[in-house]
Amino acid sequence: MAQRIAKIELLRRRSFGSGTFLLNMAAYQLTTLDVFCANHVAFPTWSNKELEVQALRVTPVQRSGEAAALAVEIDVLETDSRIYAWSTAEELTAAGYQQGNWPTATAAEAVPYPWSPGYAAPLPGDAVYTKGASGWASFGIEPVAGTDAQSNPALSLEIKGAYPINQLDTGIESPYVTAVAFPAGGSLAPGTYIIGVSAYDAGALPYRNTSYLDLAVVTVGGSGAGSIAVAVTWGAGDDGGDLYMAKQALTPQQGAELQAAGQYSARAVFHRQTTIAPGVTSVSITSFTEATEGGPDTVAHHFAVTWQRVVHGGVWAQQAQAVTSNAITIAGDGMTVNQWAGYVLTLLAKYQLGVEVPVLNLPVASSTASSGGMFTVTIGANSAGVTLPDLTTGGASPANPLVQVGDLLVMRDKATFGASWFEDDNIANPYYPGGATDVEAGHLAVVMDGADAGDVQPIAGVALGAAGQLTKFLLAGTWQVTPATGDLVIVVAPSQLPEYTTPAFAAPNKFATGLVTSPPNVARAVIAQPDVQNLAWQT
Fold first, then answer.
1. Residue (of 144, 139, 120, 140) closest to 354 by Cα position
2. In principle, which of 10, 109, 129, 408 could form an S-S bond with 348, CB 3.0–4.6 Å?
3. Closest to 194 measured CA to CA, from 138, 75, 113
4. pTM for this one?
5. H helices of 185-280, where?
6. How far apart are CA 132 and CA 124, in angstroms?
7. Are 374 and 335 in contact (CB under 8 A)?
8. Preceding amide of 520 cis, omega within 30
9. For residues 528 and 538, what is the distance between their CA atoms, to the nearest angstrom?
10. Phi, psi of 341 (to 5 degrees)
11. What are phi and psi of 473, to 5 degrees?
12. How far is residue 371's CA from residue 135's CA, in Å, rounded to a whole number?
């Protein structure tokens, strides 16, 4: 009995809110330690909220122009019926008992985990993100027009995504995780995976998450049919939780640099995979979705936004002049038949203000020769054999199709690579007959996908390519991993603007109380809204 009372007293005082209510005399029937259920329209997450009476008193209440009346004022504390649950399995005996130690947390962060916004997922048929809706989801971008303090036209960008969970419950034990990989039983690609589990401290909102106690690291072999068996040992106070997973995709040099800088936690871009019910101790992972948001982060505090000018996003950028279900017409003379077949056409900006810019990389199947100052590119299937939705109807709404007249698109490079260079003969094209120029020295080449994704190398200069034009970019150093033909590379300016810093945020769970509080919608909000520098007429 003493042990049960001790448990009740401990749990009654753990992370519960308190308050005072003024009620009519019908509440006089209550007494200290009574538990009742309450609902209140002002608190949408209250549904049969369990409250325990801490104190009760009768108090006079007088409204203007009326005689004094009696009311009942009660002090209450949030509670949970599970506090009073007890089983003989919880009983301890003094004879031969030795207190065990819960494992020490090893998932330490020196820097925040990379942000997983979980907002703008790729579409089925995307040329770059071939996993479609289960592929990596970027943050959302929406231009917003306005005026500055002097009534001049101004533009800002709404940056949207899910908040990292940083208002964590440190008063309960985080779950312990182990994992074993298998080459069969699922659809996991070969590679190294990192797994963490974050527990809930209650069974209903508003609950808080725990940090990761440890991270299970496993390597999946085979040929793309792998699976992972995860074992979870729950700690005291855990009430189920969420399982998060990352796939380590660093080059050896990138991993070594993070390790040397004491920032190895930045290797893991986590994505929520599944919710684990209370008491469940084993989970089988057969696939990996990257479209979901990230998990707990013990050091996340605020967002900082900066931007870097893109010098070359590809070989040219132009506006759409006409759009059909699978073709886009662009203004330009001098193009030859299928000059752009096999290239990737990416949506850069929407002509219409006030709409989000989707993640959209279009695989070009064929292109026409120029006629009447126009040429047309036809969009086909991606490397997975999947085609994009109808370009005229597949957007967020009928008024906002995927592509419409006036939208800005860039034709990405289709480069070949050497250890210290990249080139594409179509860098010299009817828009830029001479190809590149001497101003490229000092710019930075950034690899956007493939085995060398994230590599940044200074450009030393340009040289003549195979066709005798300035279409070859020479690096000052060498690639960490030589990219494969067709991997995307862009060229950016060497400096960036100062950071725009947001206020601190506090997210107790994936629904981030105060933003979106109703499952299954994860809290996705405008996390920053920096101004856009006006670069009109600047080169």
1. 144
2. 408
3. 113
4. 0.75
5. 252-260
6. 4
7. no
8. yes
9. 26
10. -65, 135
11. -100, 130
12. 38
pLDDT in tens, 155-192: 888 899 999 999 999 888 999 999 999 999 999 999 99
Q: Is 53 helix (H, G, I), strand (E, B) or coil?
A: strand
- 529's tokens: 């809204």
E strand or H helix at 4, and its extent?
helix 2-12
Output the six-digit token pair for 14. 């753990």
* Radius of gyration in angstroms for the set of CA atoms belonging to the chain, rounded to a whole number: 29
Residue 113 gets the label, from left (phi > 0), alpha (psi -120 to 50) or beta, of beta
Give which of 418, 463, 407, 417 is closest to 440, Cα–Cα: 463
**What does the block give as tokens for 516?**
């979106």
| Partners of residue 361 on adjacent β-strands | 346
- Which tokens belong to 245? 């997973």
Token pair, residue 4, equals 């049960």
Copy the structure tokens of residue 380: 């086909």
**Phi first, then psi: what are they for 162, rounded to 5°?**
-90, 140
pLDDT at 515 exceeding the cut of 60: no
CA distance 402 to 360: 8
Strand ranges (E), 112-240: 140-147, 153-162, 176-182, 191-199, 216-220, 227-233
DSSP labels, 364-432: EEEEPPPBTTEEEEEE-B-TTS-BPPPTTT-SSBTTB-SS-TT-EEEE----EEETTEEE-GGGSBTTB
Residue 269's nearest CA partner among 285, 249, 254 is: 249
Q: Is the peptide bond before 206 cis (omega within 30 degrees of 0)?
A: yes
Query: Edge-to-edge, what's the strand order for the sheet holding 69-78?
Result: 18-23, 69-78, 49-61, 35-38
